[in-house]
Amino acid sequence: MYNKKIDKFQGQVEMVLKESLADIDLTCTQLFKTLRIKSHLTGAGIRKLEGYSACHLLFALFTLVFLPLKGVSSCARLNLTTITAAGKDAFYRLKNRDLSWRSFLWRLLGCLSQRLAWSHHAPEDCYFVLDTTVLPKRGEKIEEVSYVYDHCRGRTVLGYELSTLLLVNPRGYYPLDFGYLFSKHRGKDHQAATVAHPHSSLDRRRQEALINKLDCSLRMLERALAKGIKATYALMDRWFASPKFFLALRQLGLHGIGRLKRGTGRYQYQGHWYTLDELYQKAKTSLVRYRALGYSLTRLEVVCANGLHGSIVFSKGYQEPEVNQLAGAKLPPQPKWAAFFTTDVSLAVDEVVKKYLCRWSMEVFFKEAKTLLGLGKDQSRSFAAQVGATTLTLLRFNVLAFVKAQQDAAQTSGGLFRELAEEIGLLTLQEKIIAYFRKFLLLTLELISQSLAPQDNFQDFIDIINNIFNKIGSLSGCES
Length: 480
Prior knowledge:
The chain has 480 residues and is an alpha+beta fold. Among the domains are: 238-356, no CATH class; 429-470. The chain has 17 helices and twelve strands. The protein has helices spanning 12-19, 28-34, 37-43, 54-64, 72-77, 88-95, 101-116, 201-209, 213-226, 243-251, 276-283, 349-357, 360-371, 383-407, 413-424, 429-452, 458-470, and strands spanning 127-136, 146-150, 155-169, 172-181, 233-236, 255-259, 266-269, 272-275, 288-290, 295-303, 309-316, 337-342. Strands 1, 2, 3, 4, 5, 6, 9, 10, 11 and 12 form a ten-stranded mixed sheet that branches. Strands 7-8 form a two-stranded antiparallel sheet. A hairpin with a 4-residue loop joins β9 and β10 (295-303). α7 runs parallel beside α14 (383-407) and α16 runs antiparallel to α17 (458-470).
């Protein structure tokens, strides 16, 4: 036995989840059992020899995001022992350990794949999406933070750059893997990550973070394909779209679709080499309006400098929605035209753009993960804690996506979050008192009914008391 049995395992959050959520078929407690979270933790070697089990602590951390708390320390300060009797030190010991979170996440994804029948979807309807985002941090003493460029802010910020792999299929979208990327620009108080031993899980994360984002993305794709995740296309924005990366995708058996940057890169067309601007001047006279998309499109078949064959689709009127646009920030100028490259020359011109639009699932994921699910909000100095916190965010998102797929509802994961948050919200002091006396009186009356054998109308007396409690209004005055 690796875990000592704790008598008080189920806290208030688990009780509320079990008794509430009348409109949601699966509660978080049931989901942990359905998705076999405890088994995945054990299989990944994430377990404790004594004290509260890793599954118990993970459940508490999982549900904290649905409560009006800022973290484990807030829970400890407010003495919310009804959530869990574990102290904050128990959580920090788990978070700061060098654990195989990637192995745990892939075990969970394997379970999701089986339950949602990902393999039944046609591969051409499934897409890998690659993108990066910046997680700003405060304090140069946080392990492995560096100064990275944030294109949303248009400047360099202190923090981490997070590279993420997303799977999009007809049932929804699911984050599969992530990797941290470090910059060479470190602060004077830079702290290296504390690793248990060379070649440990955290040490491999550090080594991955020192390579460029393209190689990091290719490694994530290789892992996904090795795990049996099937897709035909990899979608990416201008930061990834390059002939070298597209060629690497073809070697993995994937087709790439990405938006091209207007630079000095040259492409061969009809025996001559042209820049992207020069190609557009040749193609703009053949633009055709597609009413379903609202864009004018045309295509040229070209050869890249590395010998890769592909098609460039030019679009006039294409504009990208600014999902992550900061409030009050100046909107970037929209170009008059855009160019998309694909290695699948058999695709119709409008299908190239339609498939590329699925890339915006990644932007929605980043938006919801940051604003609703705590991505990048962990305040620990430990790099191990940062990795664990990001894994926990992906766990939350995948669980909500699983609920959405099970319900087959046309609502976003953000809508599910708000519904959960409304139902799970902390019981007020008044509600706790009422619930306590309701239970006390009902149990007392039940004992009386068993011992004195009252008349047949005794149940009516119980119902009257129950109705009185239901009609009690809100307490007025100070919340304290």
